[in-house]
Write a structure and sequence with these properties.
- The chain is α/β, with parallel strands linked by helices and 895 residues long.
- The chain has 35 helices and 31 strands.
- An 8-stranded mixed sheet has the order 12-22-21-14-15-16-17-13. The chain has an 8-stranded parallel β-barrel with strand order 24-25-26-27-28-29-30-31, surrounded by 6 helices. A 5-stranded antiparallel sheet has the order 1-2-5-3-4.
- Helix 23 (593-617) runs parallel beside helix 27 (691-708) and helix 27 crosses helix 28.
- The two termini are 33 Å apart.
- The relative contact order is 0.07.
């Protein structure tokens, strides 16, 4: 028979797949001898079995009863015992941390009888009734499906009646009254009663946690964090310890290093006379963890020692939850903590310097996405003026947007393209869609360990918490500052997550310190030093070269400063825009070869000068120049616009422009229903006489010019949209003829390797034949994705990609991260067959996948020689190429 339940002494952190992250880490702390309240874990296998059938797995609750008996024996009390009740907590615990996304129920075992016993044995009647009302509230919303806001309203109404500023000012009799109101509410809403049987409470709570794995907020979080849907959650059942027994008790969350900056030390929040849920929910503002040293020196010293033990054992930033029960410290959870991008780089570097991890492991613990966030701009401090409010800098960065006061409005406005700031008293897991949609989150309550802070840091969102001077009125959709300023919904705000400041209006932005370093080499900021060391290590480790997609000398120069080792894609069509469009029109409208040649002759010196500038910027490095790719009609005016212009002239009794008439005739003649699959790429070169020759002559003459002045030009010529080797053979013959002519004319030998883009499935599947004529391949993964999936990117992303992501067809857009099973398989086939035909074949990728972190790892494994991406993604690609090379030497998972 399958086994579903495990004691804390029967596991460790290496069994997180089975025991969930929370359970595995509790077992690990138990093995380390730390003070962990006893308990047991219902495994992820049990959850998967339940979700598959909708019924509790056979034998599971018999196992639960046996393990519960062991906890009862250890405590000397039974679950819900009337005179001295044992109470337990029931918490979710997935393989990967999903803070607040699934359910928790505390104080299981309380009922109308045992609450009296708890009051007597604790000597604290208020504590007993407070625990009972918490159980009914959590159980009612989590297990029985009652809207949690209805409980909150009853609490608020009672506080208003009693004139109590918070729940601490409610007396035992008040809480007893609230218990009855809560029970009545459950009956009104469900037709059922709150269960008095402790065993039934436990059973239903465990199953509710299982169900919460498929809750809307959990599914949304998994999609965003790319967590598989089939893992399931474990359930941890643990003896309750109480932080709400009085001033000598409390709960807190601690970090072994600052999760915002990475600086070493003890960071976190403590809330006297409170349970742990109060800390993360931001119901009352916490005190800094350092204040615990004054309140309870002994517990503080013990906590500090345990934190040191955990950091050295896990060799990473640890996020710890703890409770002090009448002066006794209990460790309730630890996990590898979520952190900002700056903290990730700092912590990885410092742990490597301390010898706790190898440098390669430090590199594995940072990411290209994190580096990209550090390259974002920040506010110009000299131009921001006085802030509206200050709060706790919970997640750094700079964000500007319109204030909104609920999640639905944030989603609605963001869907129209508007940037928004989500403002709440405190966030709850139900606010996740709004947090995803918003540029930043601002709360008037909570600290660095509140729900808003933890989730925002995990998502890389700007966040300011605990802005106490703000009075947030959700109903009126506005907030009031301590100075009396009223800020209505839709008012533009600027939120500085690094300084914890909020400003009215759109504050001006300046480049980040990391961006200044990439542009100038300046290393004054601390974070720049650790980023530079990570990039240097990545450059030493990586096998993949990193090139840039650049079409101008300015872009090429920037890419080189950012560490690019050449240009993998220079799009020549971008050089035909602006004033040159008229010359392209003349070429298209030409009635004979002479007129076409005159237009091409006029374009030649302009193209040549473009190439000279780019080759100069990339002197000594390869520059892959793609011949004209898009359909020619893109260089002509819009058909409807031309027709209207001609029709308007005729309506006025005027003779339409002959040029307009010619253009309209050409547009109609060249019109295609699906131009992306029409006359473009290599097809243009074969159909339009002289076009390839003009472009190749401009490239060759630019090479000659740079060579004569002592340069080292390394131009490569790439033919786009090849589907058959014959196409490439014909164009290559013309290319080599022109190169030979320019060499003879100039007396300067010109050799430019000729290759092709692999952007059609047929090209990938006939790569061996195409390699007979190509000296290099470059995968155009944008078009390869379109033609493999049958998608038109311009149409489908807005039409149905959101639905496909929601339904799980995609984990992420195939235009963002390479589709390994389909497009990736074509890449692997083309690499293998191309190299079999030509062993020295150079192979790269020049679609935007070349700068996507996950895709870079795939291209490394697939055996490509280089990736090419936009200049601003070059540092990201460098870092990820190094991480991909080092992945075989070390593994780390800090999701």
């Amino acid at each position: 028979m399958a086994r579903y339940v495990y004691d804390f002494t029967q596991g460790g952190r290496d069994r997180a797949d089975l025991l969930g992250g929370k359970g595995a880490n509790l077992a690990e702390m138990t093995r380390l001898g730390l003070p962990v309240p006893p308990g047991f874990i219902v495994s992820t296998e049990a959850c998967r079995a339940f979700l598959a059938t909708g019924a509790e797995p056979e034998g599971m609750f018999r196992e639960v009863s046996r393990h519960l008996s062991a906890v009862e024996s250890d405590a000397g009390r039974r679950l819900g015992q009337p005179d001295d009740p044992l109470l337990v907590s029931v918490r979710s615990g997935a393989r990967f941390s999903m803070p607040g996304m699934m359910e928790t129920v505390l104080d299981i075992g309380l009922n109308d009888d045992s609450v009296q016993g708890l009051a007597k044995v604790s000597g604290n009647e208020r504590f007993a009734w407070d625990s009972y009302r918490r159980l009914i509230q959590m159980f009612g919303s989590t297990v029985m499906g009652v809207d949690g806001a209805l409980f909150d309203r009853k609490m608020m109404r009672l506080k208003d009646l009693r004139g109590a500023p918070d729940d601490l000012h409610l007396h035992a009799a008040d809480l007893a009254e609230l218990v009855e109101a809560y029970k009545q509410l459950i009956h009104e809403q469900t037709g059922d009663y709150f269960p008095q049987s402790p065993a039934e409470q436990l059973r239903r709570a465990i199953l509710a946690v299982f169900r919460s794995w498929n809750g809307e907020r959990a599914r949304l979080y998994r999609r965003r964090e790319h967590i598989p849907d089939d893992l399931g959650t474990a359930v941890t059942v643990q003896r309750m310890v109480y932080g709400n027994l009085g001033p000598d008790s409390g709960s807190g969350v601690a970090f072994t290093r600052d999760p915002a900056t990475g600086r070493p030390g003890l960071y976190g929040d403590y809330l006297p006379n409170a349970q742990g849920e109060d800390v993360v929910a931001g119901i009352r503002n916490t005190v800094p963890l350092a204040e615990l040293e004054r309140l309870d020196p002994r517990s503080y010293r013990q906590l500090r020692d345990h934190m040191r033990t955990l950091e050295r054992h896990y060799r990473d930033l640890c996020d710890i939850e703890f409770t002090i029960e009448r002066g006794t410290l209990w460790m309730l959870q630890t996990r590898v903590g979520k952190r900002t991008a700056e903290a990730a780089f700092t912590i990885a570097a410092e742990l490597a310097e301390e010898g706790l991890i190898a440098p390669q492991e430090g590199l594995a613990r940072v990411s290209g996405d994190g580096l990209a966030r550090l390259m974002f701009p920040r506010f110009d401090a000299s131009a921001t003026g006085e802030p509206l409010a200050h709060g706790i800098p919970a997640s750094p960065g700079a964000a500007v947007g319109a204030a909104v006061f609920d999640s639905a409005e944030a989603v609605r406005r963001a869907a129209t393209g508007e940037k928004v700031i989500l403002v709440r008293e405190e966030t709850t897991p139900d606010d996740l869609p709004g947090m995803v949609a918003a540029q930043a989150v601002l709360t008037s309550r909570g600290g660095k360990t509140s729900h808003a802070a933890v989730v925002a840091r995990g998502m890389g969102k700007v966040c300011v918490c605990g802005a106490e001077d703000l009075s947030v009125d959700i109903v009126a959709r506005r907030f009031t500052t301590g100075g009396g300023t009223v800020v209505e919904e839709a008012t533009v705000l600027s939120v500085d997550g690094s300084a914890g400041a909020v400003y009215a209006g759109a504050a001006p932005l300046v480049d980040s310190a990391v961006m200044r370093y990439l542009e100038t080499g300046e290393r004054s900021a601390h974070v720049v030093g650790v980023v530079a060391r990570a990039l240097d290590l990545a450059d030493d480790l990586r096998r993949l070269e990193v090139r840039a997609n650049a079409d101008t000398p300015e872009d090429a120069a920037r890419a080189r400063r950012f560490g690019a080792q050449g240009i993998g894609l220079c799009r020549t069509e971008h050089m035909f825009l602006g004033e040159r469009r008229k010359l392209v029109e003349e070429m298209i409208l030409a009635r004979d070869d002479g007129a076409r040649d005159r237009a091409l002759d006029a374009l030649l010196p302009l193209q040549r000068q473009d190439f000279i500038g780019i080759l100069e910027a990339m002197d000594g490095l390869p520059v892959t120049i793609r011949l004209l790719d898009p359909p020619l009609h893109e260089f002509l005016p819009d058909r409807t616009e031309l027709a209207v212009r001609i029709g308007s002239a005729e309506a006025r009794g005027e003779q339409p422009s002959a040029h307009d008439a010619q253009l309209l005739d050409a547009v109609r003649r060249m019109h295609e229903e699906n131009p992306m699959l029409g006359l473009r790429g290599v097809r243009l070169g074969l159909v339009v006489p002289g076009l390839v020759a003009m472009q190749v002559r401009a490239i060759a003459q630019a090479v000659v010019e740079r060579t004569r002045v002592g340069g080292d030009p390394r131009a490569e010529i790439m033919v786009p949209l090849v589907g058959d080797v014959t196409e490439l053979r014909l164009v290559r013959g013309e290319v080599e003829q022109v190169l030979a002519e320019v060499s003879a004319e100039s007396g300067v030998p010109v050799h430019c390797p000729v290759g092709t883009m692999i952007e059609l499935p047929r090209a990938a599947l006939t790569a061996a034949r195409i390699a007979e004529e190509a000296e290099f391949f470059s995968f155009g993964t944008n078009d390869l994705t379109q033609t493999t999936w049958g998608f038109s990117r311009d149409d489908v992303e807005a039409a149905f990609f959101t639905s496909y992501l929601d339904k799980g067809v995609f984990a992420t857009s195939p235009f963002e991260t390479i589709d390994r099973e389909g497009v990736g398989r074509l890449v692997e086939i083309a690499v293998a067959e191309g190299r079999a035909a030509r062993p020295d074949l150079k192979i790269g990728v020049c679609g935007e996948h070349g700068g996507d972190p996950g895709s870079v790892h795939f291209f490394h494994t697939a055996g490509l020689d280089y990736v090419s991406c936009s200049p601003f993604r070059v540092p990201v690609a460098r870092l990820e190429a190094g991480r991909a090379a080092g992945a075989g030497e070390t593994t780390s998972d800090t999701r």
